[in-house]
Structure formats: C-alpha cells, structure tokens
Specification:
By secondary structure, the protein is α+β, with helices and mostly antiparallel strands. It has two domains: about 5-175, no CATH class; about 270-344, Alpha Horseshoe (Leucine-rich Repeat Variant). The chain has helices at about 5-15, 30-45, 55-60, 65, 105-125, 140-145, 195, 215-220, 230-235, 245, 270-275, 280-285, 295-310, 315-320, 330-340; strands spanning about 20-25, 70-80, 95-100, 130-135, 150-155, 160, 170-175, 205, 210, 240. Strand 5 (about 150-155) and strand 6 form a beta hairpin. Helix 1 packs antiparallel against helix 5 (about 105-125) and helix 13 runs parallel beside helix 15. The longest helix is centred in the middle third of the chain and has 20 residues, at about 105-125.
Length: about 350
C-alpha cells in the first residue's frame, strides 16, 4: 500500500472513531533533553509521592527500551473541551468542584477502546505488530506528542495545541514498521505567564517547572493522608483535581466543544452537604465509571471536609462535629481544622 494513501485512510479512520487528531514520530527523535528534563523533575522531588515515576526511567525516556521492536510512534488526541469556563465554579462555595476530565467517563477506557479499533485497522493494512498505551505504562506521552506535531508542552507542563487549546487526552501506539514522521511542534507560549500566575498554591517553580507537592491536582487525587495546613485554604471547593492553569490558557479560544458524548458532564452540581453524607457504597455507585471512584470514599471525604472549611458557611459546623471523633486520624483532624476555620 502506498504510504501516503495509508495516511489519508488512517486520517479518516481516526476521525470516524472520534479522535481529534494524530501525529507520527519515531524513537530516534527522542533526544537527551527528554531524559534530562525528566530526571531534573525527579531530582527536585517534584514528583511528590508518585514514586512510580522514578521506576523504569530508561523505558520512559527511550521507547526502544520498553519495546525493542518499535520503529514508529503514533500519538492521538481525544478532546474534552467543556461547555463553560470551569473557573466560574470556584465561586459556588457550597458545591463540590471537580476537574473537568473527572466528571466524564473514565478516559483510560474511552481512549483505549478507540485505539483498539484503529489498531485493528492498521494491522490489516500494513501487517504489523503494535502496542497501545493510555497513561498507565512508562511512556512520556507529552514529549512524544510534541515530537509528533500535535502541540507543545506549555509553561504549565501540559500539552497545548493551536487548534484545541489544552483540553484533550493522549493515546500512544508503538508500531514495528517505519512510517513517515511529522514535524515537531514549536513552542508558542511566548511571554504569556497566565497559567503560572493563576496557580492558587504557587506550585510552579518557574516556566515548565511544576512541583507536584504543592499542586492541588496532586494533593486532592494522589496524596494520601492529611494535606499540609498552609495549603488547605488555597484548595477552596476543589474536591478532585484543579483546572485553573488549563482554563486560563489563551489558546483555548480556538478549542471547540467536544463532540464526544463520553466526555459530556455526568454530574456537576453535587453539593458539599450531599457529598458529605455519601456512604462508601453510595460513593462507589455515584461515581461508577469515572476516575473519581479510584480516589476512594475516605480521601473523598477528606477533600469534602476541607472544602467545607473553606466555604465560610457556619451552618456546616454542626455537620462536621460528627466527624471530629472519626476513626481515621486525617478525617478527624480535617474536621477539627474545618470547624476552627468556620468559627473565625
């Protein structure tokens, strides 16, 4: 099959399954700077408690070390642009504020199902072996996406596209056949620092340098135990993730509302009081099929209590008193902190 004809047909398949774009690179394009940047991130302890990032560094920074047969790398984008600016939700102090991606069906499953369809078509067309990845293997998706021409890593360290802003997921496919590569994308952030300036906890040590130990997305999703007291008031009503640096990016003006029904809001107005009362079984049922379920009801409860403490609503004090003697120390401590904040 003519390779250009293959790419044209692949473009149609990619669009048909719902991906917004794709690009191609190969392992030789991954230079020493990728490993250097990643190792600096680890060296500075900016990976916080995400110790798994320190493992299998050679596989992360050199695709052929993960799969020796890889000759080409395809990267796909799956956009989830929200209908409204999520920054507006921060003013609704009595409502649980979830990161946009979390209010939808778990993207790992959605993206992987699409990749499988594309993979089946590719195997038939060019008789190849391949592997697909969605944010669970030692793969540095964002550098590969930039090398594939899909966007650039912005100063907030997320990928930014001139066509889609920064509201999209990434899927990666390693193939054992050589394909023509796309040109890497350039950095178009310019002098803009809006994403750095808006961060509630000042988690950026500078452009392109994110310290996860202060990042609300890490603290509310990955962090175990109590969150440092000096950071709690900055969390506001964010109970799962944070979108501030994404939402403020000027390139979002070119993004279009996602056409993917899997990424439409499944819930959006869960009050803090309703969330506080969810039992473990109710929590698992309510958040079934979303990334939030993996958080677990205990840490979710912790986040809800912090949000209540930040609400300024004294009527929550009586509700919170029921948790002061909770058997889990960081829940009881969170309740005590929240009550003291509300009494100020």
């Amino acid at each position: 099959m003519d390779i250009q004809d293959f790419k044209l047909q692949l473009q149609q398949i990619v669009s048909d399954v719902g991906f917004s774009s794709f690009g191609i690179t190969n392992p030789s394009k991954v230079d020493h700077s990728v490993k250097e940047n990643f190792m600096n991130f680890i060296k500075n302890d900016w990976n916080a408690g995400m110790d798994w990032l320190e493992k299998r560094v050679n596989e992360r920074t050199a695709p052929e070390n993960l799969w020796s047969s890889v000759k080409s790398i395809l990267v796909f984008t799956d956009d989830y642009t929200p209908a409204e600016n999520p920054l507006k939700k921060l003013k609704e102090k009595e409502v649980s504020n979830f990161s946009v991606f979390a209010t939808k069906r778990d993207y790992h499953k959605v993206v992987k199902s699409k990749l499988r369809i594309v993979a089946s078509w590719i195997k038939k067309k060019i008789d190849c072996d391949l592997k697909i990845f969605v944010d669970t293997a030692p793969v540095l998706e964002k550098p590969l996406a930039q090398l594939s021409g899909l966007g650039w890593q912005g100063k907030h360290t997320n990928l930014v596209s001139k066509n889609m802003g920064n509201w999209f997921f990434l899927g990666v496919m390693y193939i054992d056949k050589l394909l023509p590569v796309d040109e890497p994308e350039k950095d178009f952030c310019g002098s803009c620092t809006k994403c750095l300036d808006i961060c509630p906890t000042n988690a950026f040590e500078g452009p392109y340098k994110l310290d996860a130990r202060k990042c609300i997305a890490y603290l509310t999703v990955e962090h175990k135990g109590a969150i440092d007291k000096e950071l709690r008031s900055s969390i506001g009503n964010r109970v799962f993730g944070c979108d501030d640096c994404l939402a403020i990016c000027p390139w979002n003006k070119f993004a279009k509302l996602t056409r993917n029904v899997n990424y439409r809001d499944r819930f959006s107005n869960l009050s803090l009081e309703e969330a506080l009362r969810l039992s473990d079984a109710e929590f698992r049922k309510f958040f079934s099929g979303t990334a939030i379920k993996r958080l677990g009801s205990t840490r979710f409860l912790r986040n809800i209590i912090y949000a209540m403490g930040n609400s300024g609503k004294k009527e929550y004090i009586e509700l919170l008193e029921d948790y002061v003697n909770h058997s889990i120390y960081f829940i009881s401590e969170a309740a005590e902190w929240a009550i003291s904040e509300l009494k100020k």
